[in-house]
Structures are given as structure tokens and as C-alpha cells.
Task: inverse folding
């Protein structure tokens, strides 16, 4: 019984607008993907389980650089590390990582390097839920804003509100998401055809499980697992870390 983590780090970070791919951008002196990897590797379940295999997806031309980076920092850590070339979409990147999982892995976490400050306790909570028999698990937080569905108003490109969506049963879903390996493989295999194109790919792995008609369970998310999408998100994360150090 082995827990693996897939760390998705192959995105370009268009919305961040940094010259480096997002996962390689420094946050308080350390790359985002290293923050995220450290969080995953520090997780311990109540039964003492931890992540023993780490598979990282990278953009083209960055495989050797990322492998060297991880070896330099995690060289002493007791973890098997694989670095693979990502795909055109996040879904395709996860599929490439699944393909290299060692045979002994039975539980897989899928986590975004773009969520560098997700605490170890969150990964542990997700693994514990999978081990408790929930084959697909996502962390979720209540939605705090009022949410409205919109549509085109006329031919001008303006939007108008169609309806206000009841938010009590909405959750903003984060990563790490956790899966029994067999279910994750089945879901990605079934969804492979639409995974190559951003217009048809799912935005998270649980979405593929939902498409199979199988249940996905929710555990409590964590504010610290917020996603870094824009330059402002990165600045906020810098402030949070500075505050913790103070
Ligand atoms: N082809 C891709 C696209 C995204 N990701 C990863 O999936 C996570 C979530 O993606 P997102 O936040 O959208 O990152 P980017 O695609 O890099 O950002 P943007 O959409 O602004 O370009 C990130 O850790 C990113 O590196 C990936 O591994 N492979
Ligand atoms: C997987 C994810 O982080 C869950 O919230 C999210 O869907 C990624 O979305 P992105 O547009 O690829 O950042």
C-alpha cells in the first residue's frame, strides 16, 4: 500500500504574467512547486502514512531543470521522484503522470503547484478519507459571494444576469484531490479523448469521476490552499509568509 502524489506544474501561468512558468516562480525565495512538494511530503495520516512517490509534470524544455531542482532540495527525503513532460491541458498532464506511477501505488493525490501553501494537514485529511473507503475525495470550502449565472444580453457582447444560484450547497473545490488508483485510471482513460483540448478538458480530476457517474466525496478545505492565478495572488501569498515569519 503506497500513497503517491502527482504535482501538476506544467502550466505556463499566462494569467500570472511572469517570464517564468508559474510553478518555477519564486515565492519568498523558493519556487512554487517546491513549496507545494514540501507540503505534500510533510503530510502524515493518523495511521502514520505519508507520500512515498512524487510525480511532477513540467513544461517542455524544463524536465532536466526541474529534476535537478528537486534532487537538490529533496535529495535527503525518503521519496521516489519522477519528473514527466506535461500535456497541452492540465488533464493531459495528469494523464502523463498516471502513466509512470509505480505498480505498488494504490492511492493517488493530485495537487496543483499553483496551490503552494496547502498545509500538510489537508493532504493527510484527504488520504484518510480515501483510506476510509471513499474512492474519490475533494477538499471544498463554502462559497462566500453571491453567485449569479449570466448570459449574453444582446449582440453587443454585454452580459446580463440569468439567475442567482443558491449557494448553501455550493463548494469551491481545491487540491489535493485524492483517489483510489484504479478509479483515477478508469476516469482518465474514459475521458482521454476530450483531455487534449482546453475547450473540452475537465478542470479537475474529480470531474472525470463524476462523468463516470461515480460518487465524489467532500472533506473540509483550507484557506491556505488558495490557488495562485494572478500577480495579486502571489503578492498576497508573500504577505502571508512574511506574517508567519514575523
Ligand atoms: N497543461 C497544463 C496546464 C496546467 N498545469 C498545472 O495545473 C495547475 C493549475 O493550472 P493553472 O492554475 O491554470 O496554471 P496555468 O495553466 O499555468 O495558468 P494559466 O491558465 O494562467 O496559464 C498548475 O499547477 C499548472 O502548472 C499542468 O500541469 N499542465
Ligand atoms: C484543479 C483546480 O485547482 C480545482 O479547483 C482547478 O480546477 C484548476 O483550474 P485552473 O483553471 O487550471 O487553474
Result:
Amino acid at each position: 500500500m503506497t500513497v503517491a502524489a502527482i504535482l501538476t506544474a506544467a502550466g505556463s501561468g499566462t494569467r500570472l504574467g511572469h517570464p517564468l512558468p508559474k510553478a518555477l516562480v519564486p515565492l519568498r525565495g523558493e519556487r512554487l512547486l517546491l513549496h507545494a512538494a514540501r507540503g505534500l511530503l510533510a503530510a502524515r495520516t493518523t495511521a502514520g502514512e505519508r507520500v512515498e512517490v512524487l510525480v511532477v509534470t513540467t513544461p517542455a524544455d524544463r524536465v532536466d531543470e526541474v529534476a535537478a531542482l528537486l534532487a537538490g532540495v529533496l535529495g535527503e527525503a525518503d521519496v521516489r521522484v519522477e519528473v514527466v513532460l506535461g500535456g497541452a491541458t492540465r488533464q493531459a498532464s495528469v494523464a502523463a503522470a498516471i502513466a509512470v506511477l509505480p505498480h505498488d501505488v494504490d492511492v493517488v493525490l493530485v495537487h496543483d503547484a499553483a496551490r503552494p501553501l496547502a498545509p500538510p494537514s489537508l493532504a493527510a485529511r484527504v488520504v484518510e478519507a480515501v483510506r476510509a473507503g471513499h474512492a474519490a475525495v475533494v477538499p471544498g470550502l463554502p462559497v462566500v459571494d453571491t453567485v449569479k449565472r449570466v448570459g449574453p444580453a444582446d449582440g453587443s457582447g454585454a452580459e446580463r444576469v440569468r439567475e442567482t444560484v443558491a449557494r448553501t450547497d455550493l463548494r469551491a473545490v481545491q487540491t489535493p484531490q485524492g483517489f483510489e488508483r484504479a478509479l483515477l485510471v478508469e476516469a482518465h482513460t474514459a475521458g482521454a479523448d476530450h483531455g487534449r483540448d482546453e475547450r473540452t478538458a475537465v478542470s479537475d480530476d474529480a470531474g472525470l469521476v463524476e462523468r463516470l457517474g461515480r460518487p465524489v466525496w467532500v472533506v473540509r478545505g483550507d484557506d491556505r490552499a488558495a490557488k495562485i492565478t494572478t500577480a495579486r495572488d502571489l503578492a498576497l501569498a508573500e504577505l502571508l509568509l512574511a506574517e508567519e515569519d514575523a
